[in-house]
Amino acid sequence: MNRVILNTVLISCLAIAACKRKQPPANTEVPVNLLKLKTQNVLYYDKYPSTTAALSQVSLLPQIQGAITAIFFTEGAYVKKGQKLYEIDERIYQDNYNAAVANRKVAEGTLVQSQQDADRYEYLNKYNAVAKQLYDHAIITLQNSQSSVKSADEAVKSARTNLQYAIVTAPFDGTIGFSQVKLGNVVTPGTTVLNTISTNDPIAVDFIVNEKQLSRFEKLQTNKPVTDSLFTILLPDNTLYPYTGKISVIDRAVDSQTGAIRIRLVFANPKNSLRVGMSCVVRVHNEETTPQMVLPNKAVVEQMGEYFVFVARDSVINNPKAQSDTGKIKHKLLAVQKKVQIGQTIGPNVIIKSGVDPGDRIVTDGVQSLHDGSQITTANKVGPSGGKGGRG
User: Fold this and answer.
1) Is the pTM of this model over 0.70?
2) What is the pLDDT of residues 32-88, one digit of tens each?
3) Which H or E run includes 216?
4) Domain that holds residue 222
5) Ordered alpha helix ranges (H), 23-131
């Protein structure tokens, strides 16, 4: 009986050992999808955050002190150059003007009297009929009267100017904003801001570029562009603005801290749909006519600010047993990591500027499971979701 039990146990152990020997080795090949890299003509835009700005904008400041007695405009309205906007209490300035005019009349009367005395003493002096001292005094009095009239004239001009400053007018055509003062507020010259006026049409759009791109935009400013729609903008609601722009100004200097420089475009704004201070996106049409290398965005992996792709390479696997059994050399596919320089993103794709060559087989799906030197296979196709997690 014991022998039967021992034989049974022995047979079971041998069976288990045989099963273990027959298990196939684990498959270390990562299933991937490959794409043969080609060049193609592409249409894309370089995009830059931007802000609209007025070509002319001024803050209205009073030139005299006083209380606001009238406001002649509607806030947010379009105003014309010379249009009356505010009135500052003019009574004191009107009184000063009237007093200055009266003082000038007194000075003019004194001048007439001095002229008559000087003429009389000059006649008598010819015949030595008057003391020389009296004649000299008459001439000096005449000169003083002439100076008094000139001073009175200047006082009248100053009083007239202050009186005119009581009416604040628009310096140019544009849109006026919210009034910063109300009726009865006392304003101070050079300090109190009454309002702001800015021009509407045309309007400026400012954006920042890196100094490395400066030469490109200088050429775009001086040379006629290949396409008429070289500069366009996307509005805050992501709609395309219907008018195209052109370069107006490139700033005089590069910011030494950031290495950036400001560029100003000018756009027509006939419907006043662009307002000062809006956030937009400037699109600069790509004028590159040579074919570009394009890959799906998911094929690119970002690591520490650098970008990589996996290229499939044929490799001979050093397996002496396989060679002795079959007499053939065993070939495998390996994923080789390559650093690339990327360009503009175009929808789900991205332009590859350097690092790989046309004809290379690029891993597009399965990249999240790879490292440099991983064995790969295309025998089991990977669904599109398998490549998720490439470039973020």
Assistant:
1) no
2) 888 888 888 777 778 899 999 999 999 999 998 999 999 999 999 999 999 999 999
3) helix 214-222
4) 45-56+199-285
5) 91-126
